[in-house]
Amino acid sequence: MKYNVVIPAAGMGKRMGIGTNKLRISLQDKPIIAYTLDVFENDPWCSSIVLVVNEQDRDFMEDLVRSYKFMKVKAIVKGGRERQESVYEGLKRIKEECIVLVHDGARPFVRIEHIQKLVQVTSEKSAAILAVPVKDTIKRAKDGIVQETFDRSELWSIQTPQAFKLSLLKEAYEKAEMDGFTGTDDASLVERIGHHVEIVEGDYNNIKITTKEDLYFAEAIIKGINEK
Asked: What pLDDT band is residue 14 in, cutting at 50, 70 and 90?
């Protein structure tokens, strides 16, 4: 069972506070984005990778793809101002109907078995996302006053990859562009046009590296992987 993947890697790492793309940061002498690309390069189900980048990062990304011999990277595409625009630019490079995954470049620890489960579900249901059950109690507040406590058993923390039939995701993106709508993730665009999205349970190591504190967790995850 085959799929293609779009990896948005054009973020500037504002919450990291480093003034450059956080995906350039090295963990044990290897850039974060290289760990992410490694996963898909080594998944036999992955047919191709579309990498979406900032123009100022293009030379770095092209050099990285060559030096690490990422043969499945078929296109390096200029991203937009926001993630949604960047993903859309990547989707435009995929012409034939397929299962397409969208995966954040800053999630380097997704497991191949979870990707493949996601693809299997998508082949039947057309849309599926990785998620893990929420651990903490979640409350809604206004002006510092609790308004509501949610039932934790119904809450999921959503991750990537998110997987879709290409035609469905393109339809959702076209509708969002026409309406000037910006979603919180790719699945929200698909939900908006009335399509159900299935949840596939992942694991808590599939973190998104967003802040400097996340780098400590990332180092610990790498250490745990290397000790297995």
From this structure: low
